[in-house]
Predict the structure.
Amino acid sequence: ETTEESIEEQIDVFRHEYKIIIERITEKLNNYNSPQTMYSNIKLQEIKIPMFYGEMKQWSSFHDLFKSLVHDSKHFTEVEKMFRLKTSLGGEAGRLIQHLPVTATNYEAAWQILKE
């Protein structure tokens, strides 16, 4: 064998081993980043939005929590936000927007009414 053939053979072996290592790393990363792996040992408690009945002393807490978990979320459509808003209200606060049906177009209006 010539030195050139020996070098080519070593390069081929190296490429093969490199490919196997990259495949193993990729597989481990995919398993590590999967939601099942991330939460398999941890059970997260769902944060429930407390009911808001219109008491001003409770408004800032309700507002901040609802805004953070629902209003600013990209995971909910406007109609889902409206449903969550209406089902989180009772008393005077619920009466303020009871005339608005649960539709996507009514969500912003309902949120503004409550904020005022």
The two ends are 87 Å apart (CA to CA).
